């Protein structure tokens, strides 16, 4: 799966699928919703689901896979080819922090973590050192 404009991944393989904002992917009993979130890279995507209601005994409203957009108490770099810090902060703000579908009680699963933690949207709103740029 990749952003529909990510030409470097496009082949004739039937196993590859270009995605865009608003697409959904069914994975078992969950439906993942696609968000276009440029910034770390121009063709970055995030996926969220409102289906899971529990994680490790904790009640949740859902989860979001952010790749390298957001980390626990951090954000992705935007100084690679095609990255753009204005787009990165706009994606975090408009696609996640102010998305009416995504609440404070959504868990964030990033592409990797410097602290080894799963975080939440609410936690990042309160504790991220970058919150002044996206709130």
TrEMBL record:
Residues 1-20 are annotated as: Disordered. It holds the Pfam family Lactamase_B. The keyword Transcription does not apply. Residues 11-94 form the Metallo-beta-lactamase domain. Coiled coil: none annotated. One of its GO terms (molecular function) is hydrolase activity. This is Metallo-beta-lactamase domain-containing protein.
């Amino acid at each position: 799966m990749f952003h529909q404009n990510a030409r470097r991944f496009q082949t004739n393989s039937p196993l590859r699928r270009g995605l865009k904002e608003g697409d959904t992917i069914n994975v078992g009993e969950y439906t993942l919703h696609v968000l276009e979130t440029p910034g770390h890279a121009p063709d970055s995507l995030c996926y969220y689901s409102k289906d899971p209601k529990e994680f490790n005994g904790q009640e949740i409203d859902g989860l979001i896979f952010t790749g390298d957009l957001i980390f626990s108490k951090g954000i992705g770099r935007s100084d690679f080819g095609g990255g753009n810090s204005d787009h990165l902060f706009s994606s975090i703000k408009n696609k996640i922090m102010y998305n009416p579908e995504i609440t404070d009680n959504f868990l964030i699963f990033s592409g990797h973590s410097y602290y080894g933690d799963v975080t939440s949207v609410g936690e990042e709103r309160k504790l991220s050192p970058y919150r002044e740029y996206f709130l």
